[in-house]
TrEMBL record, chain A:
UniProt cross-references to NCBIfam families, sorted A to Z: ATPsyn_F1gamma, PRK05621.1-2
Name of this protein: ATP synthase gamma chain
Source taxonomy: Bacteria, Bacillati, Actinomycetota, Actinomycetes, Kitasatosporales
Physiological role: Produces ATP from ADP in the presence of a proton gradient across the membrane. The gamma chain is believed to be important in regulating ATPase activity and the flow of protons through the CF(0) complex.
Pfam families the UniProt entry points to: ATP-synt
Annotated source species: Streptomyces cinnamoneus
Gene label: atpG
From TrEMBL, chain B:
Record SUPFAM superfamilies: Epsilon subunit of F1F0-ATP synthase N-terminal domain (SSF51344)
PANTHER family per record: ATP SYNTHASE DELTA/EPSILON CHAIN, ATP SYNTHASE EPSILON CHAIN, CHLOROPLASTIC
Gene: atpC
Organism domain of life: Bacteria
Pfam families: ATP-synt_DE_N (PF02823)
GO molecular-function term, one example from the UniProt record: proton-transporting ATP synthase activity, rotational mechanism
GO cellular component: plasma membrane; proton-transporting ATP synthase complex
Stated family: Belongs to the ATPase epsilon chain family.
Localisation per UniProt entry: Cell membrane
Protein name: ATP synthase epsilon chain
Positions in coiled-coil regions: 76-119
Taxonomic source organism: Streptomyces cinnamoneus
InterPro entries in UniProt: ATP_synth_F1_dsu/esu, ATP_synth_F1_dsu/esu_N, ATPsynth_dsu/esu_N
Subunit structure: F-type ATPases have 2 components, CF(1) - the catalytic core - and CF(0) - the membrane proton channel. CF(1) has five subunits: alpha(3), beta(3), gamma(1), delta(1), epsilon(1). CF(0) has three main subunits: a, b and c.
Domain ATP synthase F1 complex delta/epsilon subunit N-terminal: start-end pairs: 5-83
Length: 306, 125
């Protein structure tokens, strides 16, 4: 009697507790998106000034640099994959991993060796479980990356590009991260960071303002400036990618937690309906039992009267 | 006064200072350089060092800058730094502690960073 009702009550209680947790996570993520977006915006002046400077060197001189020269037959390519440290973010990490897989397959089809670098625990776990080789990985800062983190990631990558391919260096550097398009849309994108095509960079900044750049005086020399400028440029690109990935991660988590909360609400609603029906069924049964008992009693006493 | 230049001091993660100035002194790898309005277009590599900006209203802004670039064209000057701090933002005690620690550990780069921070502060006071 009433056991069905008790089961429903218990389920409602447990789903309510889950809903509280997902709701809290949703709100935390929502506040962090704003913070992450603000960080992206704060890093923009540096990135755009740097792009302008790189463009200036590119147009103002004809210096060759290891980071800008296209190798004729690229033999090895590095892929930097940016995933998250924590789960519960819907398809965020798996989408990025899928994009990296596609890129890797494409590069392999082009006859290149692919070496993988990973940011974020989820990516490391995915590659570790499948026993795929990872050259280097960084974890622990995907929530809110700092410039120092970006520098840490960029260091070995730049070194690998500068090193000769025969000595274990790479010819190309690709980065796969999740671009923050809007609160609702985040798409995994893959970009080739190195070798830097200066023409593309020039076009990019010229689209913003098309005017002829003045003839610059380089201090100490154009090679010296390029030497110092390009690593910084790569760092700032990686920093930007990490920041966008962080914003995307929070947005993805917010959306995942929102749908979890909605689902919990639906569950609670349907369980409440079922519990009500069960309670009503109990009552109806009790009434019919009483009525049945009463009429049986009435029949019995009526029979004895006669 | 017609001659003034627009200065943007940007660090990797934020915009530190921007405004009009009459003179900017910064340390490049080949020595100190002073930029006044009308200077030839310039792109240089900065060394860790204090940057002095004389603003149009007569005040002086000093900042500690660690690594980066100076670029100047069309009376617009941008100072790009990985790390940049204005003198009034610098915590003197912390910088002194960092200097001592760097000296103890014989970390030349850290010592230089702390030194620059202190130089930026003492230059004003």
């Amino acid at each position: 009697m009433g056991s069905q009702l008790r089961v429903y009550k218990r389920r409602i209680k447990s789903v309510t507790a889950t809903k509280k947790i997902t709701k809290a996570m949703e709100m935390i993520s929502a506040s962090r998106i704003v913070k992450a977006q603000r960080k992206v915006a704060a890093s923009t002046p540096y990135a755009s000034e740097l792009t302008r400077a790189v463009t200036a060197v590119a147009t103002g001189s004809h210096t060759k640099h290891a980071l800008t020269t296209e190798v004729e037959n690229p033999a090895r390519a590095a892929v930097l994959l940016v995933t998250s440290d924590r789960g519960l973010a819907g398809g965020y990490s798996s989408n990025a991993i899928k994009a990296a897989d596609q890129l890797t397959n494409r590069l392999k089809a082009e006859g290149k060796d692919v070496v993988t670098y990973i940011v974020g625990r989820k990516g490391v776990a995915y590659y570790g479980f499948r026993e795929r080789p990872v050259v280097d990985s960084w974890t622990g800062f995907t929530d809110s990356p700092t410039y120092a983190d970006a520098k840490k990631v960029a260091g070995p990558l730049i070194e690998a590009v500068v090193t000769d391919t025969a000595e274990g260096g790479v010819d190309e550097l690709h980065i796969v991260f999740t671009e923050f398009v809007s609160m609702m849309t985040q798409t995994p994108v893959e970009k080739r960071l190195l070798p830097l095509s200066l023409e593309a960079t020039a076009e990019e900044s010229e689209a913003v303002k098309d005017k002829i750049l003045p003839l610059f005086d380089f201090e100490p020399s154009d090679e010296g400036v390029l030497d110092a400028l390009l690593p910084r440029y790569v760092e700032s690109r990686i920093y930007n990618a990490l920041l966008q990935a962080a914003a995307s991660e929070h947005a993805a988590r917010r959306r995942a937690m929102k749908s979890a909360t909605d689902n919990a609400e639906d569950l609670i609603k349907s369980f409440t309906r079922l519990a009500n029906a069960a309670r009503q069924a109990d009552i109806t049964q009790e009434i019919s039992e009483i009525v049945g008992g009463a009429s049986a009693l009435a029949d019995a006493t009526a029979g004895s009267d006669r | 006064m017609a001659a003034e230049l627009h200065v943007e001091l940007v660090a990797a993660d934020r915009s530190v200072w921007s405004g009009e100035a009459t003179l900017v002194i910064a340390r490049t790898t080949s020595g100190d350089i002073g930029v006044m309005p009308g200077h030839q277009p310039l792109l240089g590599v900065l060394q860790s060092g204090p940057v002095t900006i004389k603003t149009t209203d007569g005040t002086t802004v000093v900042a500690a800058v660690h690594g980066g670039f100076i670029s100047f064209a069309d009376d617009k000057l941008s100072l790009l730094a990985e790390i940049a701090e204005l003198a009034d933002e610098i915590d003197v005690e912390r910088a002194e502690r960092a200097l001592e620690r760097a000296k103890a550990e014989a970390d030349a780069a850290a010592e230089r960073r702390a030194d620059v921070r202190l130089m930026a502060v003492t230059g004003v006071r």
